[in-house]
Amino acid sequence: MKPSDIQKFIDKAKDLEKGHSMDLSSGEDLSLAIMNLIGIEEHMFFTSQKLGDTKYIDVLNTAREMRKELMKKIVKEGQGEVWCTSKHLLSASMRLMEVGTKYLTKGDNKEANEYFKKSFDLYNLFWGLNLGMVKSDPTKIKFEDQDTPLPKKDLLGTISQTIGKILDCCRE
Q1: Within a domain: residue 2?
Q2: Which end of the chain is more exposed for a tag (fewer CB within 10 A), N or C?
Q3: Which residues pair with 134 in a beta bridge?
């Protein structure tokens, strides 16, 4: 992908943001909250099974209902697998971030950074999908205005680089 193509996509995303009912900075915060709700769901499931106590399933369900409500604010396209894919992209991103943090704690910065990059790439793929910049057909992932698919070799890196330029969590 040429730098001029990346700039074209950045400009398109900024136009999308202007018409978006929620600013992207708030959307980023909301997406992180959703990640944590997914984590709560997972922990409550395992806790209920390990302890044989169904009261944790009630907490799981409460967190799940809140997550579904909040996801509707970001995931606008309900067609096909976009909803589930979005949830799993956030979940996988969160888990890879946690694995990276564990390697960081052990002093293995190289391994930690590999997991952090994968986490960030998946997080940016979530945004590319939900900003309508990435086609949802997994066999032909490409930016909407592009006639040919991105090279699969560095698909996530290209998407991550582009979305990373668009999203700025430090904007107030």
Answers
A1: no
A2: C
A3: 143
Q: Could you tell me if residue 172 is inside a domain?
A: no
For the entire predicted model, the pTM comes to: 0.70
What are 164's two structure tokens? 């990373």
DSSP state of 78: -
Does 5 reside within a domain?
no
Q: What is the pLDDT of residues 60-119, one digit of tens each?
A: 999 999 999 999 999 986 666 888 999 999 999 999 999 999 999 999 999 999 999 999
Query: 37 with 170: CB under 8 angstroms?
Result: no
Q: How many domains does the chain fold into?
A: 1
**Structural domain that includes position 28:** 12-166
Residue of 167, 35, 130 whose CA lies nearest to 92: 35
The tally of CA atoms less than 13 A away on the side-chain side of residue 157 is 6
